[in-house]
């Protein structure tokens, strides 16, 4: 059954309305028809219903069932990803959304090659990444789609995450594993920090350790930046009982 995300204002008693690009997807891509069942998700609640009408800009659905979703981890992984070159960020967002990451911060570090200085270009990137996250969340039956935040500097990130649970995969760390690091986790929020292609500068690692970050090893092999976040999130989810 196909899943779509809606807002509160799209629900009225026993009817819900699908709007925007989803209408074209329903009509022209999925080729759904009157009477077909769909799922709609709003703030963690799942609505099951049958299509009543398909119009040019609106799909009307009769609600048959409502229940609380269970497709989200019991804790939140916030991924701060050093912005990589090319379309690697698209891949990272897609796969980490499928895994269950709650929120993404595109991160500028000392060794980040990609520098987005134009606000219009930044807005365009955030819009594209949000669309990728939404589509991945629908495909993987998430009960929400992750928030893609504005691009953030390393120093601003440090101020944002002080005093929280912080895990940083680092190629020079040889002993401390994620399994060891999560023993100190105090609540349901984990900040996962991934460097860009060139990794973190030593002074950045020292700054992170200075605010209590756990640097961890992901094993004896060096992983690419587009692999590290996926692997680290997977291990976190496994060790904390979600996978």
TrEMBL record:
Which EC number applies? 2.1.1.193
Source organism of the structure = Acidilutibacter cellobiosedens
Annotated Gene Ontology cellular component terms: cytoplasm
The Gene Ontology terms for molecular function here are: rRNA (uridine-N3-)-methyltransferase activity
Q: Which Pfam families match?
A: Methyltrans_RNA, PUA_4
| Gene Ontology biological-process annotations | rRNA base methylation
Q: Does this entry carry the keyword Cytoplasm?
A: yes
Which part of the chain is the Ribosomal RNA small subunit methyltransferase E PUA-like domain? 18-63
Biological function? Specifically methylates the N3 position of the uracil ring of uridine 1498 (m3U1498) in 16S rRNA. Acts on the fully assembled 30S ribosomal subunit.
The reaction(s) catalysed by this protein are: uridine(1498) in 16S rRNA + S-adenosyl-L-methionine = N(3)-methyluridine(1498) in 16S rRNA + S-adenosyl-L-homocysteine + H(+)
Q: Which UniProt keywords apply?
A: Cytoplasm, Methyltransferase, rRNA processing, S-adenosyl-L-methionine, Transferase
Q: Where is the Ribosomal RNA small subunit methyltransferase E methyltransferase domain?
A: 74-236
Q: Which family does it belong to?
A: Belongs to the RNA methyltransferase RsmE family.
Q: Where in the cell is it found?
A: Cytoplasm
Record InterPro entries: Alpha/beta_knot_MTases (IPR029028), PUA-like_sf (IPR015947), RsmE (IPR006700), RsmE_MTase_dom (IPR046886), RsmE_PUA-like (IPR046887), tRNA_m1G_MTases_N (IPR029026)
Q: Which Gene3D superfamilies match?
A: 3.40.1280.10, Hypothetical PUA domain-like, domain 1
Question: Protein name, please?
Answer: Ribosomal RNA small subunit methyltransferase E
Q: Is the keyword Transferase in the record?
A: yes
């Amino acid at each position: 059954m196909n899943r779509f995300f809606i807002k509160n204002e799209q629900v009225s008693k026993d009817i819900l309305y699908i709007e925007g690009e989803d209408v074209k997807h329903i009509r022209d891509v999925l080729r759904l028809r009157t009477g077909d069942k769909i799922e709609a998700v709003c703030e963690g609640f799942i609505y099951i219903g049958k299509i009543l009408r398909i119009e040019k800009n609106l799909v009307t659905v009769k609600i048959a069932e409502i229940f609380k979703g269970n497709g989200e981890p019991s804790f939140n992984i916030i991924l701060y990803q050093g912005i990589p070159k090319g379309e690697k960020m698209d891949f990272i967002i897609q796969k980490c959304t499928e895994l269950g990451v709650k929120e993404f911060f595109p991160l500028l570090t000392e060794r980040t090659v990609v520098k987005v200085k134009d606000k219009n270009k930044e807005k365009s990137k955030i819009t594209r990444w949000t669309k990728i996250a939404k589509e991945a969340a629908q495909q993987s039956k998430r009960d929400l789609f992750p928030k893609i935040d504005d691009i953030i500097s390393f120093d601003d990130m440090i101020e944002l995450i002080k005093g929280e649970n912080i895990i940083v995969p680092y190629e020079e760390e040889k002993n401390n594993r994620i399994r060891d690091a999560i023993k100190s986790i105090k609540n349901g929020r984990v900040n996962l920090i991934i460097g860009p292609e060139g990794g973190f500068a030593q002074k950045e690692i020292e700054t992170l350790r200075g605010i209590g970050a756990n640097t961890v090893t992901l094993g004896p092999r060096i992983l690419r930046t587009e692999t590290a976040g996926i692997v680290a999130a997977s291990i976190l989810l496994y060790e904390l009982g979600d996978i």
